[in-house]
Amino acid sequence: MRDAAPTTIYLKDYTPFGFLVDSVHLTFDLAAHATRVTSRIAFRPNPDASDHQFFLHGEELKLIRASIDGATISPEVTDKGLTADVPTAPFIWEAVVEIDPGNNTALEGLYMSSGMYCTQCEAEGFRKITFYPDRPDVMSTFTVRIKGDLPVLLSNGNPSDQGEGWAEWVDPWPKPAYLFALVAGELVAHSDHFTTMSGRDVVLNLWVRPGDEGKCAFGMEALKKSMKWDEDVYGREYDLDVFNIVAVDDFNMGAMENKGLNIFNSSAVLASPETSTDMNFERIEAIIAHEYFHNWTGNRITCRDWFQLCLKEGLTVFRDAQFTSDMRSAPVKRIHDAIDLRARQFPEDNGPLSHPVRPESFQEINNFYTSTIYEKGAEIIGMLKTLVGDDSYAKALDLYFERHDGQACTIEDWLQVFEDATGRDLSQFKRWYSQSGTPRLGVSEDWADGTYTLTLRQRTEPTPGQDEKLPQVIPVAVGLLGPNGDELRETEILELTEAEQSFVFSGLPAKPMASILRGFSAPVILEQDHSDAERAFLLAHDTDPFNRWQAGRSLVQDTLLRMITQDATPGADYLDGLLAVLLDADLDAAYRALMLGLPTQSELAAALHEQGHTPDPMAIWTAIETLRQTTAQHVQDLLPRLHSETVVDEPYAPDAQQSGKRALGGAALALTTRLDGGAMAAQAYTRADNMTQQLGALSCLLRAGKGKEELSAFYDQWRHDRLVMDKWFGLQVSLAAPDAAAQTARTLTEHADFNWKNPNRFRAVMGALAMNHAGFHAAGGAGYALLADWLVRLDPVNPQTTARMCSAFQTWKRYDADRQALIKTQLQRIANTPDLSRDTTEMISRILNA
Ligand code: PHE
Ligand code: ZN
After folding, report:
1. What is the predicted pLDDT for the residue at 1?
2. Average pLDDT over residues 416-427
3. How far apart are CA 520 and CA 738, in angstroms?
4. d(C-alpha 746, C-alpha 28), whole Å
């Protein structure tokens, strides 16, 4: 319920808790509407704290009784927690509370999903389970006894004892409450084991609902690979006898790294060739790795407070990206990450929701699980590694684990480790954590007498709360190419630390062509005025795979922008350059498929806005359609060859090689469909024996305005598979024509299988609507109104998912006055909803204040 005045929490106000917790014993008597939680907690005064006020967080708890050292007390309870008078010496706190997991639709705390009990405690969900100092710097060992008539009863740590209707778990590693987890249900295990580098045997279980057993093998392999990789690359070994993963259908996020008991959104772990796409497989592998890697970066070393969230998330995303690069293709992974960062983080960082990677204040921490904290946070680690070098990075990480194991840390601790390991002063580098906004990198060049001078400039636009920006340390990877495409200078890291700085390269035989920001060495916007011919040259010759791709991307983006603003037609530099790349059999298929990609419509809208134009979503959509049609005609003769080259005649495997081939084959099919009206796609649909190709073919048909029969056959085939049905819902909305998108989404919300309280299903429809740029922004505002209707409806049920989806409106100030007015009306309508959650209130007010 809405607070009278929402309170803002500040980083600068941090103080340690007045007490230390030596041990926590919890007993759960499970019942759907009256679960009893009995806690016995050993507290003692914290010698490092000055304030010894005893306050325990607690929300939506019914206190049955409480005692201190055995004597019953009557503490003062509010809707936020309780206070009590306590001894000045160590004491035992005991409490019994009652909670209602069966009515917990917010999916935070203890809740139920298809008859199964499960928990989600990050960030502040433990306070909905019992009274506790629910903050990450309070760490303790936990013993948990679960009573309930369900066959599988799980908690963190190692199993210690069990009997008829109960089980007990002991987690020997001190942890904050946000890593607590409990699961109880009728589950089946896919089991395996792993021998660690010191020879300990670890039992691995992936727990799923009966019926999902066939979707576990891939996740289990990913887990074992992750465990091995963390030993090989970071020297980190697993530290319990058992590692459990549970798949749940109702989950707000992707997955959660609870100690020894990871809980996953079933979409982030269950996979089979028939039901999952290659992209699903890759994502699942990365998320399994991510959660596993948290065992060291997050759990053994955790965060002092939630302002330090990037300490665990940025580092863990960086680690999972390294893992994916090692398991698959490093250039392809880097390109995917750049695409993703530009699609999600850049709009956030350049709009009303912009915030530093380490924010200084928040109202609701759940609103800060953002692309900025995760992905920009990971980019910062990548830059740090680039700046200090691989060896120093390894040394610093060893020191980090050695010095901080078992602690709750800050960004200062993290940077200190690097300063100590390398002797480098990182005070300017630290601005990456405190300054929000995406730096723009400007370039000018000078050439005379064999000397090439490259001048780099940096500038960051004002962002909410930050008008003045200081120069940041930007590692700019640069290589120089000669006129014939030979490399004159290999990649070198230029450290840009000033607002403007020149770098001199002398003794060159000819005027070079610079390849700047190779490997996307910093999360910045490169502003470089290249002609189409120069971009085409880099597309043909750049030796850096990222920048070669980038040259093609910039070329096509310029082409599209000129089509939109000047009615231009696609030029030969792009079309022939693309053809050459597609013909180059030395390039792997995945890379060539990426070359066929286009910037999103939303990115084009942002680019137009930057150039001073008001983006017209329909004009953007039309330009993309036209370009695709022209491209199809231009590469037409090549398509049969691409098709035959991408035939996979081995059994299906979701590996990099095969999925690259399917990606290229799918892209070729999409172009073919523009020429044959869907004849080939219809055949491909019939032949498909895996979801990648089945969904790919169906997409082609729908985009061509066909596929009605296939769509209903698909429904009949998959109506009993929840995850595939999410795809069925999502696809129709994503591929709906601009004037039909809102109506399509509305019709689907009336479908019997539209279970809107399930976050995956809700996002499948509403998320897809928000992502269908021309459809969402179609004139008249039906898309805005529909999304707003549903956000208002979902908010009391699930504030966290509602608030996250508000970001669909974050770019509203880019558009014309009519659209702004329509969006503003919806934003105000949401804001004025009685009892709006704190989560959504904060998001809407930040967006409205743009
Ligand atoms: N900590 C989780 C992760 O990054 C994300 C998460 C946050 C999940 C909050 C649930 C709730 O892996
Ligand atoms: Zn994480």
Report:
1. 42
2. 98
3. 33
4. 42
Q: What is the pTM of this model?
A: 0.99
**Using one digit for the tens of pLDDT, what is the confidence trace for 17-43?**
999 999 999 999 999 999 999 999 999
Q: What is the pLDDT of residues 180-223, one digit of tens each?
A: 999 999 999 999 999 999 999 999 999 999 999 999 999 999 99
Diameter of the chain measured on Cα atoms: 89
What gap in Å lies between CA 678 and CA 689, rounded to an integer? 19
Question: Nearest-CA neighbor of 70 among 58, 56, 53, 87?
Answer: 87
Structure tokens at 791: 């956000």
Residue type, 744: T
Which residue's CA is minimally distant from atom 1 of ligand 1? 256
Peptide bond into 123 cis (omega under 30): yes
> Taking Cα atoms as reference points, which of 640, 641, 700 lies closest to residue 674?
700
State the CB neighbour count (10 A cutoff) for residue 575: 19
Q: Which atom of ligand 1 is nearest to the CA of 366?
A: 9
Residues 312, 300: contact at Cβ < 8 Å?
A: no
Give residue-wise pLDDT tens across range 553-609: 999 999 999 999 999 999 999 999 999 999 998 999 999 999 999 999 999 999 999
Q: Which ligand is nearest to the CA of 316?
A: 2
First CA to last CA distance, the chain: 25
Structural contact between residues 744 and 766, judged by C-beta atoms closer than 8 angstroms = no
Sign for the CA dihedral angle at 404, 409, 415, 416 comes to negative
Is residue 279 within 8 A of residue 662, CB to CB? The reply is no
Q: Report, as residue numbers or ranges, the catalytic residues.
A: 291
How far apart are the CA of 538 and the centre of ligand 1, in A? 40
Would the pLDDT of 306 be above 50? yes
Name 56's bridge partners.
82
Tell me the C-alpha distance between 373 and 313, whole Å: 7
**If DSSP codes are grouped into helix, strand and coil, which group holds residue 205?**
strand
Ligand 2 centroid from CA 293, angstroms: 9
CB atoms within 10 A of CB 790: 20
Are 215 and 208 in contact, with CB atoms under 8 Å apart? Answer: yes
